[in-house]
From TrEMBL:
This is Transmembrane channel-like protein. Its main location: membrane. The keyword Transmembrane applies. It is a multi-pass membrane protein. The chain crosses the membrane at residues 257-279, 338-356, 426-450, 474-493, 505-525, 645-663, 695-716, 752-776. Belongs to the TMC family. PANTHER family: TRANSMEMBRANE CHANNEL-LIKE PROTEIN 1, TRANSMEMBRANE CHANNEL-RELATED. It is found in: Membrane. Residues 74-87 have a biased composition (Basic residues). Pfam families: TMC. Residues 1-143, 825-844 are annotated as: Disordered. Keywords: Membrane, Transmembrane, Transmembrane helix. GO terms for biological process: cellular response to mechanical stimulus; detection of mechanical stimulus involved in sensory perception of sound; vestibular reflex.
Length: 852
């Protein structure tokens, strides 16, 4: 049986190979001769094939170099003929490569068919491997199994070019429909041919290393994306920043930071105070402090009572008075009083550490001011991200760039503004006088309401309604809602930069809230004194009650069992600590409800009215009154700060406060994000917020310090209640530390602690800390000033270099203009000489013609 193979040569010749594969009927000698002859032919064909392959590769390289040289020459001439010849040369080169590859394939098939009688399976597998190794990308073909040194060099250059294209593709001004296919093709090309650049056995190892490196890079990129996705509310804040600017976004970033702090505070109080008492402490109804009194049990589950945090809510783990003074509770022997005291101190210490650390990190990232050199040029040419493929992300990016341009325009306008300085000073003094009047009136109103509430408390709150019982909290909430609006109207007189105006507004609202808060604390101190006086009366009455209970009922030497009394019938003291905790919880709840009602009425209903009644109203509601509301950054920031201050102040007496504040912040994030995007409009003058955001942190540090002072005063100076709380029976709350040192530690440790806590050592240590802080602050200011001076010098040097370059360019332009003028003059002289010569030549010719 015969097989016929047809191959085409380089010059269009057709070669027919006829192969006979029926040789099994011949003798052994003929088979030996045939085998030896086939081996010789195979060797000669292999040698000839390799020599012909090398010769063809050299011819192709010479032809390419000649065609490229011809093309470059033609392109230098600038004619169409050069470009046409270059295209023809490339097309001829591609055709020749294809013909040579076809010829090589035909010869390989011929070699495999001659060995078919011996090893048909091995030859077929080798054909499949050779065909599998051949790959084609774009217009280039490479046979990976057999590459000459020139082809390897060319492949290496192609891989390097594709890698460079992948790295620089982002900056190319191409449309996405062109970028994405180019990127995919380049990545496929690099993946297929990068491993072929190895040598021998190292080729597979190299390919494996490349593959593992790419997978590791992909893993790192996915990990970074996962970290970004795990940041709470990151996409919501980015969307708000793109539409409303960085000043509004700074509030939500601050709210998220406060949420993280309260998460830690909640974990400490819930895990180390509330849960141990609920699981290991005595159950409800076992002792008087954990039982609702008999006269209150009828209304203990009423909604009005529970809303006022009385009844069963008062006698629960939510408040200080429920906790027992038993030194160790449960089978774990958990030190409940010690844990309660250390958690209260630890939450404050952790808050100080986090706030100061955040301020230090922000100051380090500040860098000495913004660089506004070529601000608009940078924004125009470098703002867009060419890797954005999502339409929604593209819209947010477009809005963000627009907002950043508005911020930059405001900054430029404020830097060039020139106003009447005397009129500006007069208006600012007038504005500050009006603000002081508002603060004084607010303080007097709170003082009046507090004195009135004390009168109601002496007469009995049961005789009054809901408003009289909650008058102090409601007045403070209403002042906190309306006074910032009045301050905002007054600040329009001052004509400050929007960022400076925001800081003044924050400072004024801070002073308002601080005065209200300390007025409230003074009122609480008066109520604490009244409760302590009532406690002394209760102590005397309890002594008389016990004497009456046992008088005459049991003989002196009787062995009868003692009289059991229901805990609900035992008289008890007023427990001023629980009263303080209830007041702070009520204040937090009333402030939260006021904020949410204001948000729904002042923003949502206002936006609905403007939206649906604008087309049928007498004037334009969107641009006139009432219009859409703007987001009040200053009021919301100060509301967050003072709510947190009340949490720090009252968490010692109401362990439920961190949980309530955590719930409030969680709801506020979603509700205010919705209100901003649906009901508010961007400010008329969008301004850039401070990069470090340290102004918020400075106010938070101040309110932290001022809120811990009353708590420290009550812990150190006022004796705890005698029948409620974990410190009952002690003269001071901090005595639990001394008791623990004496009972659970060696005697020498107690002596060391007493020496270390001696005021003679503590005061010098505090003085040294203050001096160190002052020195470090002065050093940082010096460094910052030096950095600013260096920056100014660099800017002056750059301006000087610009001037020099401009002068050099002008000089070069003048020289070029003079050279052009001189060349034109010389050309004109040459033309004049030529015309004169032509005229003289024509005259001579006329003379000769006349002479002839």
């Amino acid at each position: 049986m015969g097989q016929t193979q047809i191959s085409t040569g380089n010059e269009g010749q057709v070669t027919i190979y006829c192969i006979d594969t029926d040789g099994d009927s011949h003798g052994g000698g003929q088979e030996m001769e045939r085998e030896s002859k086939n081996q010789k032919e195979k060797k000669t064909e292999k040698g000839g094939a390799t020599r012909s392959r090398r010769r063809r590769s050299e011819e192709r390289s010479e032809e390419r170099s000649e065609s490229s040289r011809d093309g470059r020459k033609d392109r230098r001439r600038g004619g169409k003929e050069g470009r046409r010849r270059g295209r023809q040369g490339k097309e001829e080169e591609i055709k020749k490569d294809r013909k040579n590859n076809k010829n090589e394939k035909a010869k390989k098939q011929l070699e495999s068919n001659t060995n078919h009688s011996k090893s048909s399976s091995s030859s077929s597998s080798s054909e499949e491997e050779e065909e599998g190794e051949k790959e084609k990308v774009g217009d280039e073909e490479f046979v990976v199994g057999s590459l000459s040194p020139e082809e390897l060099e060319r492949l290496k250059e192609a891989v390097d070019e594709r890698k460079k294209l992948i790295t620089t593709l982002r900056g190319k001004p191409w449309p996405m429909r062109k970028k994405l296919p180019t990127l995919r093709e380049s990545q496929l090309f690099v993946e297929k041919y990068e491993g072929a650049l190895g040598k021998g056995r190292g080729r597979k190892l190299y390919a494996y290393k490349v593959m593992m490196r790419k997978k590791w890079m992909k893993f790192e990129r996915d990990l970074e994306n996962f970290k970004t996705a795990c940041i709470p509310w990151e996409m919501k804040i980015k969307e708000i920043e793109s539409h409303f600017g960085s000043s509004v976004a700074s509030y939500f970033i601050f709210l998220r930071w406060m949420y993280g702090i309260n998460m830690i505070l909640f974990s400490l109080t819930f895990g180390l105070v509330m849960v141990p008492e609920a699981l290991m402490g005595r159950p409800y109804g076992s002792i008087p402090r954990k039982t609702v009194p008999r006269e209150e049990q009828a209304s203990a589950m009423d909604f009005a009572v529970l809303w006022d945090w009385g009844g069963y809510a008062k006698y629960s783990v939510l408040f200080y008075g429920y906790y027992n003074n038993q030194r160790a509770v449960g089978w774990l022997k958990f030190r409940m009083p010690l844990s309660y005291f250390l958690v209260g101190v630890g939450t404050v210490a952790y808050s100080y550490m986090v706030v100061i650390r955040t301020m230090a990190r922000n100051a380090k990232e500040d860098g000495g001011g913004d660089d506004t050199s070529f601000n608009f040029s940078w924004k125009i040419f470098t703002s867009w991200d060419y890797l954005i493929g999502n339409p929604e992300t593209a819209d947010n990016k477009f809005a963000s760039i627009t907002t950043s341009f508005k911020e930059a325009i405001v900054e430029e306008q404020e830097s060039r503004k020139d106003d009447n300085i005397h009129l500006t000073r007069f208006l600012r003094v007038l504005a500050n006088f009006l603000v002081l009047c508002c603060l004084a009136g607010s303080g007097y109103l709170i003082y009046f309401v507090v004195r009135r509430s004390q009168k109601f408390a002496l007469e009995g709150l049961d005789n009054y309604g809901w408003w009289e019982r909650n008058e102090v909290n409601m007045v403070m909430s209403l002042l906190g809602m309306f006074c910032p609006m009045l301050f905002d109207v007054i600040s329009a007189l001052e004509n400050y930069h929007p960022r400076i105006a925001l800081q003044w507004q924050l400072g004024r609202i801070f002073a308002l809230f601080l005065g209200n808060l300390y007025t409230f604390i003074i009122a609480l101190m008066d109520q604490i004194n009244l409760k302590r006086a009532e406690e002394e009366i209760v102590k005397f009455n309890m002594t008389a009650w016990q004497a009456n209970l046992y008088n005459g009922t049991i003989p002196e030497n009787s062995t009868a069992p003692p009289i059991t009394v229901d805990p609900a019938d035992v008289p008890r003291g007023p427990c001023w600590e629980t009263m303080v905790g209830q007041e702070f919880v009520r204040l937090i709840i009333s402030d939260t409800m006021t904020t949410y009602i204001t948000l729904l009425i002042g923003d949502f209903l206002r936006a609905v009215l403007v939206r649906f009644l604008n087309h049928c109203w007498c004037w334009d509601l969107e641009y006139g009154f009432p219009s859409y509301s703007e987001f009040d950054v200053s009021g919301n920031v100060l509301g967050l700060i003072f709510n947190q201050g009340m949490i720090w102040m009252g968490a010692f007496y109401a362990p439920c406060l961190p949980a309530l504040n955590l719930l409030r912040l969680h709801v506020s994030m979603y509700l205010q994000c919705w209100a901003v995007m649906c009901c508010n409009v961007p400010q008329e003058r969008v301004f850039k917020a401070s990069g470090s955001n340290n102004f918020y942190m400075a106010m938070l540090l101040v309110i932290l310090f001022l809120s811990t002072l009353p708590a420290i005063y009550t812990i150190v100076s006022i004796p705890p209640s005698f029948d409620c709380g974990p410190f009952s029976g002690k003269s001071r709350m901090f005595d639990v530390i001394q008791e623990t040192l004496e009972s659970d530690f060696p005697a020498w440790f107690g002596k060391v602690f007493s020496y270390a806590s001696n005021p003679g050592l503590v005061l010098p240590f505090l003085l040294l800390m203050v001096l160190a802080i002052y020195y470090l602050h002065s050093t940082s200011k010096t460094y910052k000033h030096a950095n600013l001076e260096l920056k100014k010098k660099l800017q002056a040097q750059s301006e000087e270099n610009k001037k020099k370059n401009k002068l050099a360019a002008q000089k070069a332009a003048n020289d070029l203009e003079q050279a052009k003028i001189m060349a034109a003059a010389e050309q004109q002289e040459k033309e004049e000489k030529q015309t004169n010569n032509n005229a003289s030549r024509r005259g001579e010719e006329r003379v000769i013609a006349i002479a002839f």
